[in-house]
Amino acid sequence: xxxxxxxxxxxxxxxxLFASTEDLPILKGVTISVNPGEIHAIMGRNGxxxxxxxxxxxxxxxxxxxxxxxxxxxxxxxxxxxEERAQSGIFLGFQYPIEIPGVSNLxxxxxxxxxxxxxxxxxxxxxxxxxxxxREKLDLVKMDSAFLSRSINQGFSxxxxxxxxxxxxxxxxxxxxxxxxxxSGLDIDALRIVASGIKKISNENTGIxxxxxxxxxxxxxxxxYVHVMSDGQIIKTGExxxxxxxxxxxxxxxxxxTKEF
Amino acid sequence: MVNQNLVKGVVSxxxxxxxxxxxxxxxxxxxxxxxxxxxxxxxxxEPEFLLNFRLNAFRKWQKMEEPxxxxxxxxxxxxxxxIYYSAPKQKEKISSLDEVDPKLLETFDxxxxxxxxxxxLTNVAVDAVFDSxxxxxxxxxxLAEHGVIFCSISEAVKDYxxxxxxxxxxxxxxNDNYFAALNSAVFSDGSFVYIPKGVKCxxxxxxxxxxxxxxxxxxxxxxxxxxxxxxxxxxxxxTAPMFDTNTLHAAVVELIALDDSSIKYSTVQxxxxxxxxxxxxxxxxxxxxxxxxxxxxxxxxxxxxxxSAITWKYPSCLLLGEESVGEFYSVALTNNLQQADTGTxxxxxxPKTKSTIVSKGISAGNSVNSYRGLVKMGSKASGSRxxxxxxxxxxxxxxxxxxFPYIQSQQPNSEIEHEASTCRISEDQLFYLQSRGIEFExxxxxMVSGFCRDVFNQLPMExxxxxxxxxxxxxxxxxx
Lengths: 261, 480
Fold this sequence. Notes:
The complex is a heterodimer of chains A (261) and B (480). Chain A is built from 9 helices and 12 strands. Chain A has helices spanning 4-7, 50-58, 82-88, 105-119, 127-140, 158-172, 188-201, 215-220, 241-249, and strands at residues 12-21, 24-34, 39-44, 64-72, 75-76, 90-93, 100-104, 151-152, 176-180, 207-211, 225-230, 233-238. By secondary structure, chain B is of the alpha/beta class. In chain B, strand 3 and strand 4 (133-137) form a beta hairpin. The longest helix of chain B is centred in the C-terminal third of the chain and has 17 residues, at 440-456. The A-B interface holds A 58-62, 81-83, 85-87, 92, 94, 97-98, 100-104, 107-108, 111-112, 115-116, 119, 151-152, 168, 172 and B 3, 6, 423, 426-429, 431-440, 442-443, 446-447, 449-453.
């Protein structure tokens, strides 16, 4: 059992992180700290480094950390493989979920869920028990069980792909979920479904980072903090009203901000 | 682009079947001439017609040239530097399995093919071939009760010589090609199957080919005859020890299907492939062909080719009977410096014949993997149809895949469909699976299995699971 004080330690701490891909610097000193129960939003123009930050936290091999650290529940995770990070409770909801022909969605979800359960020292689920679990979670995102028998994301509409991401989040029960533009390409109904799914899955022990361009998602899920990112740095941090300001003035408004950290 | 470091860090799985059985063998001396052939024939106490068949083939072979049209590169084979007959020394007459040398039984045990009465596989009859001879065949009595003959081809030559004389070389003539001619001249053993009229073979039949000695070639010959309205499912497995020399394997398989009969022939080929630098490994030059002689007869080939340094193999169907059906389902995986040139020929001769080709080639490492296939519609094949699908998957950026489809039609009233695709396991796909907690290797094997699913679905059940496992083993350490 974890003590109360331990629960209050940050789940994720990114300190002065610099990273590059093929010698091109993308992140230029990002610092962010997420405590249990907190919802953070990261906003910013395309190409500002938001997606890169999320991929680096998840362990994408194309990026190289040149400076700084990433701590997950107090541990430096730089040397961990992506699957080890996932098993320990880091979840990345992809902006563009990948299609994998031939691999059944159901099998994929089961293997992933069991990898996480194994890490948590929970019993791995057989096909039958897993089907019961997955059906229950399907309701959260209002998905039809027909999705399970298809190949991973193959032929899914944009909205279906995003719901499939949230379904995975529901099954994996991460400690921290970084959702990269989960709202893009969704109509209003789908956005509500996804948002309510996220809210139901998260609790006082989980941290959430929402990467988004729009206020719309933040109306459904109210963030505790909003960060504005520009050119590989977080240039401003505020509370949820900062998102409203951004919506009103556009990103040009942020061009005059100087780095606050 | 796949991160090479990520990929290279994976531990390599050694070839599990690379051991050598230390056993006293009877070998003839190296080299090939008419006397070699007479000697083999004499050792097997063969009838005159067979010796003549061999000599005729040998004379033709001498005038032929080794084919070089395949997309393969290998050092020249010295046919005089090969031993053409090698057999473990045994008692002259073996009346039961208990008399088989325990070392041989142990060898097959280790390969997962137990032969003894107590341990033998319960749902499949096995013919175990060790170098040049068949060691044992299980369930013969049970099969005989159904009239099914399953024995080594050497025994069949003695006991069913009329069938051998009638059908041997009737599908693959002695002068069909260079390697078939060589096999016809020197073949030592192999399996013989005869399914009588109206009989559905009560269990799967299987041959297991084991090359043990390093300097002898293996030239087995298989003949399967399915009489009217009969059916059989036949499986074939192969392994060999790890030697740093190359061993020649040149087999011939002939299938004959009469009216309304069906033959399903499945292969899992796992000959030693050589090491990472391409030293050693089996040269696998095989001619497999089935003749759908009868109306509505059906021959289905499924193969999982994972081993051998060189694979040259085109299991084919001659569709003579009206409404006969030919199928070819193939997974060919090459890794390191392996080279495979494999595919099929579907020759539509009779009217309303149908053929399906599904080929999945996976190339990893520095390997070369080619699909080569011919679909031919003869002038009488009206109303015939073919569907071909050839998919290639590349793993890493050093491997290559080719598709060479040949299409010939002399019949306007026939349909030929060909689909081909090439894909690469992308870093993003791998990352997606990994970011859900799935280990790198499992992620790769999930994608490879997914890619091969259409073919695995065609394999007998236990075989499919084994094939799946085999592919993941083969890919370990080299996926890039």
